[in-house]
Amino acid sequence: MKVLLIGGTGLISLGIVEQLAPRGAEITLFNRGQRAGKAGAFPVIIGDRNQPAEFEARLARERFDVVIDMICFSPAQAEATVRACAGRTAQLIFCSTVCTYGVDVPPQVLVDETFPQRPISEYARNKLVCEQIFERAAAVGHFQTTIIRPSNTYGPGGSIIDQMEFDSVVWDRVQSGLPVLCAGDGLGLWQATHRSDVGRLFAYAAGNPQTFGQAFNATRDQVFTWRDYYRQAAQALGTQAELVLVPAGWVTTQNLERFSFLNEITRYHGAYSSQKAKRTLPEFRCRVDFVDGARETFADIKKRGAWRRHQDDAEYSALVSRALELGFEKLTA
């Protein structure tokens, strides 16, 4: 099976390569050639997908059984992928996002693939339009389309998010015994899935006719509260997390641009069902425990020199101090 990863060096891509290679797939990457990482052992077609003419020209003479587009974020990029791949691949797998569902909560709490897609962020609205472009391409016979919607994915090469933002000093504060902010009462729902487990779904969807014309959530079964999440992440650091419970709206009014992730995503429940994926692909089972995966990821962050010191973020420290002065509740997760 000849497989092209458009991207191929990002967090989920590394998980896909890790799972595809043992299947004997012939893997090629398409990217700008600026990042090697563990995917560096595979041939790379050098090009910039943001230059449509160049992108299409680079792929004009190529043929693949499966193309996996990991870095498509806009309708224009999706249209370029269709032009580049139509008639040149049997299957197009698109990495979308659970954010396309929006923030409504179904009666059964967990969002599955039948739930209406009503995104509230520009990122998610663009991803939904991309899904529709690929579905239309499949409908006219350009290729078969499979859509995969990951939630929060972590692992070596990436970070452990906190509830406020992606790349945070929070974990240095936790390791140092300092309190950190947690929005609401800390009982909002969340999921975090290791890159290897998400990659497994992509890898086994590749070339599988049962996935053609289908969309799948890519999440592990465990649903956290944010208190659970901080407690287990702290456990991976060998300590406990001291949380200051603050209203999400209070945090966002302090700096809306900085805390847009909280404002658009993590202030809401993020709990999804991946039962459809498990029924369709028995190989898809999430095997990495969060504490183990977080410990591995924290070690990798430190090894890469990407660990952020709390002393370097005076704004966050001031916010915590202000929250404590206002008397917001503090507890040990």
Short description:
With 333 residues, this protein is α/β, with parallel strands linked by helices.
3D structure, described in words:
By secondary structure, this protein is α/β, with parallel strands linked by helices. It folds into 2 domains: 2-153 and 192-218, NAD(P)-binding Rossmann-like Domain (Rossmann fold, 3-Layer(aba) Sandwich), CATH 3.40.50.720; 159-190 and 221-271 and 305-332, no CATH class. The protein has helices at residues 11-20, 52-59, 75-85, 122-139, 170-175, 195-205, 226-236, 248-254, 260-266, 275-280, 290-303, 314-325, and strands at residues 2-6, 26-31, 44-46, 64-69, 89-95, 144-150, 152-154, 180-183, 189-190, 192-194, 214-218, 224-225, 242-246, 330-332. It has a 7-stranded parallel beta sheet, with helices on both faces. A 3-stranded mixed beta sheet has the order 8-13-14, with helices on both faces. Strands 7-10 form a two-stranded parallel sheet. The chain is globular, with a radius of gyration of 20 Å. The relative contact order is 0.14. The model has no long low-confidence stretch (mean pLDDT 95).
What is the fold's blueprint, element by element?
Elements: E1 2-6, H1 11-20, E2 26-31, E3 44-46, H2 52-59, E4 64-69, H3 75-85, E5 89-95, H4 122-139, E6 144-150, E7 152-154, H5 170-175, E8 180-183, E9 189-190, E10 192-194, H6 195-205, E11 214-218, E12 224-225, H7 226-236, E13 242-246, H8 248-254, H9 260-266, H10 275-280, H11 290-303, H12 314-325, E14 330-332
Helix pairs in contact: 1-6, 2-3, 3-4, 7-11
